[in-house]
Structures are given as structure tokens and as C-alpha cells.
Design a protein that fits this description.
The chain is α/β, with parallel strands linked by helices. 36% of the residues lie in helices and 17% in strands. Among the domains are: 93 residues, Rossmann fold (3-Layer(aba) Sandwich), CATH 3.40.50; 90 residues, 4-hydroxy-3-methylbut-2-enyl diphosphate reductase, catalytic domain (Cobalt-precorrin-4 Transmethylase, domain 1, 3-Layer(aba) Sandwich). The protein has ten helices and twelve strands. Strands 1-12-10-11 form a four-stranded parallel β-sheet, sandwiched between helices. It has a four-stranded parallel β-sheet with strand order 3-2-4-5. The protein has a four-stranded parallel β-sheet with strand order 7-6-8-9, covered by helices on one side. The mean pLDDT is 94.
């Protein structure tokens, strides 16, 4: 059985930066309570590893960041890599909290672009995933931002100046099709495709795979970019695609008849977890024992 290690895969620069900022925050404020407002990055193993460093998370998919902030009353609050609305930052400061913003620079670039277009008098159509923190942060900027998911019906035409953009972790291929449809509906609209480079090149690497029987995507089910990698693998005709958290989720029946197995990972997936999957598949014939997950090793290579 041939194992294809898809490259690039795993941690992006924004995730590395966010995790490093959290660890540095603990060193800088050794006696303070530190709370992350949501999942710092969308991988629950990373969050469990941070908890070992006494960095706690507060999250609820049914609550906004503003609502979650009501539950933090002391110490340091870390805003996640997905971006944060300015009014939430201001509210945290008014509560006397120490604010640490771990927003990904690529996310901030899109936010700043939207702000610029709003200041120029544009209405903004923002394409993203509902309830995703990145989309929430952008849409909270103004009532002149209108949200839609890729599967939603196209909005009604308008005579107003329209700027159309997107969440940074969408599918390159889904967005290309949607943009073409929107250009027909809004021929005078201005477009800016804002998929970040880390997302793009990981998706392109999966799309280029040929003659693969099985694809494993190592990533959290809450990770939008991990889900998009699995989606693209299926759309490209790979017979068996599995989104897994760790090596523990692999079932031998999934690959027993396979000749070529590919492994990739979402941008928030620790290298440690992906390496375990690759090693297990490579040495399956001689060692069928799955390795244990050591939380203390998850942040290796970053701290």
C-alpha cells in the first residue's frame, strides 16, 4: 500500500501565531486567569493541550462572542484567530479585562477591506458559513453587510453600489461557481475573492490527487477548512474520504483493499496528530497497535 503525504498540509501561519500568542500570554501573566473567547483555533485537541497550561476556553455555538463575554469578569481575554468585532473588544476593555487579539492577519486583511468599502458607500454581500466566528465578526461591523451561505438563493438585484466578498476558509471551487452566478445577477458589482493562501494551496493539493483509493483528512469536525478538504476530495471522485480527529478514528476496513492512500490535514490540525496517522498507515503490516494521544506533545514545534 502506497501512502501519499499530501503537501502542504496542517498548521498554517495564522494558527501557529495564535497558539504561540496564547502560550506567551501565560508566561507574561503567570498569576492571571486567562480565558479564550471561543475556540482559539478549530481543533479541540489543541484546546485541551492549552488547558494543561491553565488557559481555559469558553464557547457555545448558540451564543455570539458578545454574549460569551458576559461570562468573563476578570483577568485576560484572548480573542481567537477567526477575528473579533470592534464593539466586543471595546466591551471587554470597559469590563477591565486585559485584551489579547490573536486574529489571523489574513482575516484582518478581509475585515479592513470590508471597512474600506463601507466607508466608500458600498453595500457589502458577504459569503460565509452561518454562525462561524469569522463571519460573525465581519457581519457585526455594519448593518450594510448582508450575509449569505453558498447554498442560499441569490439575493434580489439592487441599484446600490455592491461589493461582494467572502470568508477566508471557503471552498475555492464552490466560490468560483457562485461568483459567476452573482456576476450575472449583479454585473456592476465589485468582487474580491478573499480565500487565504493557506486554504487555497491545501485545497488545490487535494484537487490534484489522482488514482487515490482513500483520502484521510485529519481535522476537527468544527474546522471549516478541514471539512472543505474532505468535500473537495469527494467532488474529485476519490472513492473513500474520511474526516478524522486522530489515528484512533481509523478503521482497518477503510483501507484494507486500497492500493494508494493519501493523507492531508486542516490548517488547525497539529503536525503531531497527522504524523501519527501517517506512521500508523506506513507500518500497519508490522505494527497494528495504534499510538496513544499525548496532550503534552501536541504543541511541539510551536513552543
Amino acid at each position: 500500500m502506497e501512502i501519499i503525504k499530501v503537501a502542504p498540509r496542517g498548521y498554517c501561519k495564522g494558527v501557529i501565531r495564535a497558539v504561540r500568542m496564547a502560550i506567551d500570554c501565560r508566561k507574561q501573566y503567570p498569576d492571571q486567569k486567562i480565558t479564550i473567547l471561543g475556540m482559539l483555533v478549530h481543533n479541540h485537541y489543541v484546546m485541551e493541550a492549552l488547558a494543561l497550561n491553565h488557559i481555559q476556553m469558553i464557547d457555545d455555538p448558540n451564543k455570539t462572542r458578545d454574549q460569551l463575554l458576559e461570562e468573563i469578569n476578570e483577568g485576560v481575554v484572548i480573542f481567537t484567530a477567526h477575528g473579533i468585532a470592534p464593539q466586543v473588544i471595546e466591551k471587554a476593555r470597559q469590563k477591565g479585562l486585559i485584551c489579547v487579539d490573536a486574529s489571523c492577519p489574513d482575516v484582518l486583511k478581509t475585515q479592513n477591506l470590508v471597512k474600506k468599502k463601507l466607508s466608500e458607500g458600498y453595500e457589502v454581500l458577504y459569503i460565509g458559513k452561518a454562525k462561524h466566528p469569522e463571519a460573525e465578526a465581519v457581519c457585526a461591523l455594519s448593518k450594510h453587510i448582508h450575509f449569505m451561505e453558498p447554498a442560499d438563493p441569490l439575493p434580489d438585484s439592487t441599484n446600490q453600489r455592491l461589493f461582494i466578498t467572502n470568508q477566508t476558509t471557503m471552498s475555492v471551487y464552490d466560490l468560483k461557481v457562485l461568483f459567476e452566478r452573482l456576476k450575472q445577477r449583479f454585473p456592476k458589482a465589485e468582487f474580491s475573492e478573499e480565500i487565504c493562501n493557506a486554504t487555497r494551496i491545501r485545497q488545490e493539493a487535494v484537487a490534484k490527487l489522482t488514482d487515490v483509493d482513500v483520502l484521510y483528512v485529519v481535522g476537527d469536525r468544527f474546522s471549516n477548512n478541514s471539512n472543505r478538504l474532505a468535500q473537495i476530495g469527494k467532488e474529485r471522485g476519490i472513492p473513500h474520504v474520511y474526516l478524522i480527529d486522530t489515528v484512533q478514528d481509523i478503521e482497518d476496513e477503510q483501507f484494507k483493499q486500497a492500493k494508494r492512500v493519501a493523507v492531508t490535514a486542516g490548517a488547525s490540525t497539529p503536525t503531531y496528530l497527522t504524523d501519527q496517522v501517517i506512521a500508523y498507515l506506513q507500518h500497519y503490516d508490522t505494527n497494528k497497535q495504534k499510538p496513544k494521544i499525548e496532550l503534552s506533545a501536541l504543541l511541539g514545534g510551536i513552543i
